[in-house]
Amino acid sequence: MDWFQLRYFMRAAELGNVSKAAEELSVSQPALSRAIAKLEEELAAPLFIRESRGVRLTPYGQTFLPYVQRAFAELAQGKEAVRSLVDPSHGVLHIGLIYSLGTRFLPELIHSFSQEEPHVSVQLIESPTHGLLEFLERGDIDIAFCSPGEDFRHLERIEVLREDLVFIVPNGHGWAGYERVPLIDAKDEPFVMYSKESGIRAMIMRYCKEAGFTPKIVMEGIEDLTVAGLVAAGLGIAIVPYNRHLLQLPVHIVHIDIPECFRAVSMVWRKDQLLTPAARKFITFVTQNRAK
């Protein structure tokens, strides 16, 4: 059993015609038929029923075909994987991102990169910071955009974005007409907080602790729009990264006066990970554009 026999069998089965398969594969029909006959002999089973207008698979052929197709698909993926390692202009780049970056910053960044590198396919996965760090550890993604703590010393990181943290309050709240409010004024307010899986939660809790209080958490959400939706329903106030899309909901944005609060977002990857040329090229691209 060799590669040519399997290829000839697969195309004849997919086209339902030996002559068309031979023409497509640039081989004579007798040569293709002999190769299939040898394959049938090795398997000790007929793969085709010959008919006047072509061929159709026997039950043996129907059973065998999916395995052959998967084998060729795996070979194609393996070829692409090696190609991506040696050719930075091709390949697949797996990027993880926190939810809030899916509507701003990253789409524009990837669009610009794709214009320069049109043959690199970019696949995205959204998750809280905790999940993204697990994906990095397993090698499921090449790069992540998130806010890991300083204790993750095995990661390389480049800060790419600073987002102001702001209050959002529901309609009718006493702060709805205010432009700025000190953080300490929130000490008696019910809070809608990010869930523990989200990296921003620890950041908000630290800011509140430094201001002299612990938030009174009444509800939790995993991403910005969920948190904002709970606030809009009147369940409490929240601290979130500034995002103009939140204004689509019935909430008011109130800036935090004292202290200045922000979230730093970094591009991170593992120090011990062998990066593909495409990933290295993307890191260089982001670094250069960040400097502009």
TrEMBL record:
Family label: Belongs to the LysR transcriptional regulatory family.
The keyword Transcription is annotated on this UniProt entry: yes
Keywords linked to the UniProt accession: DNA-binding, Transcription, Transcription regulation
Gene Ontology cellular component annotations, sorted alphabetically: protein-DNA complex
Protein name: DNA-binding transcriptional regulator, LysR family
Entries under InterPro entries matching the protein: LysR_HTH_N, LysR_subst-bd, WH-like_DNA-bd_sf, WH_DNA-bd_sf
Pfam families noted in UniProt: HTH_1, LysR_substrate
Every HTH lysR-type domain range: 1-58
An annotated Gene Ontology molecular function: DNA binding
Gene3D superfamilies: 3.40.190.290, Winged helix-like DNA-binding domain superfamily/Winged helix DNA-binding domain (1.10.10.10)
Record's keyword annotation contains Glycosyltransferase: no
